[in-house]
Amino acid sequence: MAALLLWLLSAAALLSSSDATREYDSLPETYKKGVDLAMEKVNSHPDIQLHFLFFQSVEKSTFEPGFDVSYINHHFYLKATRCQKGTVDASGCQFRRDRALIDCMVCYKTYRGEIEQEPEPFTHCIHKPALTEEMKTTRDEKCKAVGYNSGSITLLSSTGNQ
Question: Domains plus CATH for the chain?
């Protein structure tokens, strides 16, 4: 009986740790790059003691005007794990249930699947209870600045040297 209980607890631990990687692994590559950017910022913050992983997407949008260019907006949550900050292999890290989620918004432009440095990618992450309506408005404004402007110069508007 004790062996069965131990086996069930081990299986539950494996399933809960694999949920973290399963959600992340199901994201398209262009979204993973933005999540990685946010996780790098969060996990490098000096006040953070635990390792954070992608938990779930709230909202995703992609605009592809052509020429291998995409504009990505991704709103998602990161969640603390039982692993300490600096963990290299997070595949065995289990989510904690006693910590607030971190609410993140990333907006960036990609060219051929790689994040462009112009315009500068926007990343904002904050503990969910501290997120205000003013912060949400600021996020929207910053993402619009990064996003596609239909009135901007494009290759199709070029007339050559005549």
Answer: 17-149 (3.10.450.10)
